[in-house]
Amino acid sequence: MRFFPLFAAALMTAALIPAEPATAQLVIGHRGASGERPEHTLGAYEKAIDDGADYIEADLVVTKDGVLVARHENDLTETTDVADHSDFASRRRAKEIDGHLVNGWFAEDFTLAELRTLRAKERLPGVRPANTRFDGLWQVPTLAEMVKLVRAKQAETGRKIGIYLELKHPTFLLQEQGIDTVDLLLHEMRQLGLSGSDPVFIECFEVGALQRLKQRSEFKLVQLVARESGPADEAGMTYAAMTTPSGLKEIAQYADAIGPDLTMLIGPDGKATALVADAHAAGLKIHGWTLRKENAFLPKALQNGSDPAAAGNYAAAFAAIAAAGVDGVFTDNPGDAVKLRDGK
């Protein structure tokens, strides 16, 4: 999460003003409780659920044999111990993914059985050293395992727990592997007994995948947008154009919400940008990403000392987001967000 420098003073003011949420703001466990466990592990998902998250998020990539697994990127280098496996040294390669050259080991080059020999690790050890004590405890989870965990926790707690799924690089994976992840996801959702009546959101930075999902399912859909660039499957289209009033009306034809960078929602004066009102006017909900508590991700005025790993003023940041009227927030620390939202 990044804030404009001029926004820092306004955030300090916002922290002093009790938020008046008009609706119950959704707290989405970003990659699970990834501020407290290595991201996209069953441990991170369970921690987010235990801390009260309304939804837990899984970014989905695919194995060589067509199994959907949870990783933020298809590159396994930073989130697993793959580099320590000499038998996989020859799998390291360079790929151009959505216009960016990436060198590493990729999920789509491994079967699920091969992926099972790897263990997850903390992606940001310098910022989250405490999370490294969990390195090696968990495998890369499948979508099916995530859903099984959610159902087990629902039975245990008696409360509904939503899942929030992002399709990563669907055009690249179709071109690279010949695997249509839209087809694969819909097939697996049917196999898992999930439908549009369940608390499920499906998100993507691309447009075509969401439009196809709209035609073929009743799941709630979220168009992800960023401050720069545009969807990889639509040459010449920009997120800036997509988030104008006319662009938002187009998105509303196939999506239920937008998922913008939080800096697109709150201006330098600390108030909601036009995007908030424009999206709501188009009938779209707003789920902003990503709220994190460490100094490294907060403006200087909200930092606590000079250690980038130390916790900053998370409460002030949350207060500004809530006051802006954002309908949901992705956060690495869902337990803190739930307490703030619920006034605890």
TrEMBL record:
UniProt-listed InterPro entries: GP_PDE_dom, PLC-like_Pdiesterase_TIM-brl
Alphabetic keyword roster: Glycerol metabolism, Hydrolase, Signal
Family the entry assigns: Belongs to the glycerophosphoryl diester phosphodiesterase family.
Domain GP-PDE: 25-341
GO MF term (any one): glycerophosphodiester phosphodiesterase activity
Signal peptide: 1-24
Cellular component GO terms held in the UniProt record: periplasmic space
EC number(s) stated in the UniProt entry for this protein: 3.1.4.46
Reaction catalyzed: a sn-glycero-3-phosphodiester + H2O = an alcohol + sn-glycerol 3-phosphate + H(+)
Transmembrane segments: none
SUPFAM superfamilies: PLC-like phosphodiesterases (SSF51695)
Protein known as: glycerophosphodiester phosphodiesterase
GO BP annotations listed: glycerol metabolic process; lipid metabolic process
Any Pfam family matching the protein: GDPD
